[in-house]
Automatic annotation (TrEMBL):
GO molecular function, one term: transmembrane transporter activity
InterPro entries: AA/rel_permease1, APC_superfamily
Protein name, as recorded: ArcD
One GO location term (cellular component): plasma membrane
Length: 211
């Protein structure tokens, strides 16, 4: 457990600093000395915020959650406008002969499922705070609703992206790919919005992880 918690902090720190590097090149790829120092400051900031009170941390968590949805909404709207069915259907099955082949398609599904596991990481954290809920029933409803919303968001982002840029192009995008995909459509401000959203999102996730 403690090893996973430690690795989680490292993962959040690296992702946060790599996103911040878009605005502050001093952070490089998110793994240099400057990144370590800044990530440590942020981690301790989350720690002291939680010590100040769970309610204060939860309030900040709620505000950040709302803020991070704005870039996702902007991205989704622009992708819908830019969506081209011809690009989406090009090489649809991604098989050697271009037709449906059960073995190849199931292999793709299996690879996708291995990644999908990490999409819902942290959902178990709701159990930690369930004892503080006014009604325990609300915890179950919120958990199910959260899973449904997250699933829909991931489906929209993934499927719409495949209708804007071909698979080979998406595979060669720098990380975060969502930022550079939006940049290819609307220009630099698109990458800026997504990277800001990513920073906010990681801070929120890191706060929840620490809680």
């Amino acid at each position: 457990y403690w090893l996973s918690a430690w690795l989680g902090n490292v993962g959040y720190a690296t992702l946060l600093m790599s996103a911040a590097a878009y605005f502050f090149p001093v952070f490089g790829n998110g793994q240099n000395l400057a990144s370590i120092v800044m990530a440590s400051v942020i981690l301790w900031g989350c720690h002291f915020m939680i010590l100040h009170g769970a309610k204060s941390a939860s309030f900040v968590n709620t505000i950040i959650t709302i803020a991070k949805l704005i870039p996702i909404f902007i991205f989704t709207v622009i992708m819908i406008i830019s969506f081209k069915m011809g690009i989406f259907t090009h090489g649809f099955w991604y098989t050697p002969n271009g037709k449906f082949q059960f073995t190849d398609v199931m292999s793709q599904v299996r690879s996708t499922m291995l990644v999908t596991v990490w999409v819902f990481i942290g959902i178990e954290g709701a159990v930690v705070f369930s004892s503080r809920a006014n009604r325990r029933k609300d915890v179950g409803r919120a958990t199910v609703l959260g899973i449904i919303i997250v699933t829909l968001i991931y489906m929209l982002v993934t499927l719409l992206s495949l209708g804007v840029m071909r698979r080979s192009g998406l595979a060669n995008l720098s990380q975060p790919a969502m930022a550079y995909l939006l940049k290819s459509v609307v220009g630099s401000w698109g990458a800026m919005i997504v990277n800001l959203g990513l920073i906010v999102s990681v801070v929120r996730a890191w706060l929840s992880w620490t809680m």
